[in-house]
Specification:
- This protein has 271 residues and is of the alpha/beta class.
- The chain is built from ten helices and nine strands.
- Strand 1, helix 1 and strand 2 form a beta-alpha-beta unit.
- Helix 2 packs parallel to helix 4 and helix 3 runs parallel beside helix 5.
- The chain has one domain: NAD(P)-binding Rossmann-like Domain (Rossmann fold), CATH 3.40.50.
- It has a seven-stranded parallel β-sheet with strand order 3-2-1-4-6-7-9, sandwiched between helices. Strands 5-8 form a two-stranded parallel ribbon.
Length: 271
């Protein structure tokens, strides 16, 4: 397919932030783009068709994939972007809250992937880009459950890529650093807050707001997604933004004690 006919792309969580920027970037690159949101919304003005999908619901996922196939006849690219955050001490969340974040960030990815794989297999062609995070590679104090979901996506994506590669399908990871998105809209707070964490949780929220304000624009991540989507021989993972690349190198090449000390300093935790 030439640049004006890249193929059919489906982007989850495309109503705002990274998902919206990615949908727009793919459209500019020549894809016919379908985006999803949990609530009804008008099609985006530059030609992105918006559909309703709740990635935690099997029937909703199957329905949106069937809708795209009925309209476009194929799905060449799936961007698994939908996700939620959770900020607080790990023990401040009940098991039910932990299950809820995994249901979106991990099982939502698995549902969407399982739904598109049969069509991609019939086509003998397809690519799935999973939005991970640099927190999928490093510890994340007061983001333990969120980081756990991203660690899970890392392992799932790399393993699945080996399983489906001979079917003409590739699975690729994109790892953003901190991105300038709406903090209040994208973060969940613990459902059983404990007094012992009040001070440090407040500090963690303050730090998060500071680094989000200085983070990469969503368009930086979107450009990386487009590169990962179009690469003839894709790498397993792509970091998005300078800071993400630096953190990845830090984890790979520096001694564990140095990484530990650096993480505590960055998170303003005592030695």
């Amino acid at each position: 397919m030439n640049k004006t006919e890249r193929g059919i792309a489906l982007v989850t969580g495309a109503s705002s932030g990274i998902g919206l920027a990615t949908a727009q970037a793919l459209r500019r690159d020549g894809y016919r783009v379908f985006g999803t949101s949990r609530k009804p919304m008008l099609d985006i003005s530059d030609g992105i068709t918006m559909l309703i999908c709740d990635v935690t619901d099997d029937a909703s996922v199957e329905s949106v994939v069937e809708e795209v196939l009925s309209r476009a006849g194929r799905i060449d690219l799936l961007i698994n972007n939908a996700g939620i955050g959770l900020l607080g001490g790990a023990e401040e969340s009940t098991t039910e809250q932990a299950k809820a974040i995994f249901d979106v960030n991990v099982f939502g990815v698995i549902r969407m992937t399982n739904a598109v794989l049969p069509a991609m297999r019939r086509q003998r062609r397809g690519r799935i880009v999973n939005l991970s995070s640099i927190l999928g590679l490093i510890p994340a104090p007061y983001n333990a459950l969120y980081a756990s979901t991203k660690h899970a996506i890392e392992g799932y994506s790399e393993s699945l890529d080996h399983e489906v590669r001979t079917q003409g399908i590739r699975i690729v990871l994109v790892e953003p650093g901190v991105t300038r998105t709406s903090f209040e809209e994208n973060i969940t707070r613990p459902d059983r807050p404990l007094d012992v964490y009040d001070t440090v949780r407040t500090g963690a929220e303050r730090l998060m707001r500071e680094i989000v304000a200085k983070g990469d624009a969503p368009e930086v991540v979107a450009e990386t997604v487009v590169r990962a989507a179009n690469a003839a021989s894709p790498r397993r993972r792509y970091t998005a933004g300078k800071a993400a690349g630096q953190v990845r190198s830090l984890r790979r090449f520096m001694p564990e004690s140095f990484v530990d000390k650096s993480l505590r300093k960055f998170n303003r935790l005592p030695d």
